[in-house]
Structure prediction request, 388 residues.
Amino acid sequence: MTTSPFGHETLPEGVRSRVINDVNGLDVHVLEGGYENAGRPLALLLHGFPDLAYGWRDLIPILADAGYHVVAPDQRGYGRTTGWVNSYDTPLEPFGILNMTRDALALVSALGYQRTAMLVGHDIGSPIAAYCALARPDVFPSVVLMSAPFPGVPVFPFDSANDHAPNLEKETGTGTLATALAALDPPRMYYQEYLSTRQANDDLWHPPEGLQAFLRTFFFVKSGAWPGNQPHPLKGKTASEFAQMPSYYTMHLGKTMPENVAPFQPTAAEVGACQWLTDKELAVYTEEYGRTGFQGALQAYRVYADPGLGAELRLFSGRTIDVPSLFIGGTRDWGPYSAPGALDAMKTKATTRMEGIELIDGAGHWIQQEQPERLGSLLLSFAKNLSR
Prediction:
């Protein structure tokens, strides 16, 4: 696989790109800052979909200037990290949450650290960071979750041997929701179901308008700049509630993701105003996904729907995240509400030392790109409080 020098000269000063070999079977591409001096505490940043380590580029110098060795990997299935099989038909186990948790643990070890001083996970990186803190609190003694709340681990029924009542937990299965969404007028489909289909990779990789135009629109509609983002909590896991979300979440059935977001393509003026993702920076995403496609990144959505991979998470049934934790979202991001009840479950059931929930005013889904200074301030404040 031939690759050009990373970043098209868009990386901030002090941020370098390199590959770390033999990390849980992977050769991991990372961006890092603050690497010049040994002994700095480690800040590990885990991206989501369809992001890359590159999404942290403007946050890395902020944390490095504060004294951290900051490392952001391209996660398994993404970017210039290799060692994974790029196929819809490959076994899903390597992309399971617990194996990607092992990826993070192995990376910390490869870097020569016993523990992190800061662990941050955004979007799909959020549940991976959550399981890091849950499974190995000795290595990950604090955690920051971004955009995607962690509702807790799947649990075994408690005292079921003496309870003859019906199992109500099965009433809100994904199959029931999918049927109800399809019955709406117009019929709808939840994005996670679509992204787990075989055709999703080709739809995203080769859209009629071209990859760069699709990515521009997708980043735009999920940002704070798109006027259609007016998120609010949903009352429940029903079709009528899900239908209130934009079509990049609750899609129009029978249309691809590019077709669902195409009507909201930004104007030239809106593109020009997007200083957090210039055309030159967007070209980095276009090159990386143009080379790999999206299948490796999409495997996570198939993992969520796999009963066997879901069952292995019950190893932690009854466990909570007991290290200091923080949740950060954006006031214009639907992410915190896209799984109804998850935000409350995170506060009341999944964690025992949740220090707070911070919603950054005006930020959409791409918090670390849209408002890196504000995010950096929150992260450093959280870390400072832990040291008191």
Summary: The CA atoms of residues 76 and 84 lie 7 Å apart. The longest helix spans residues 372-386.
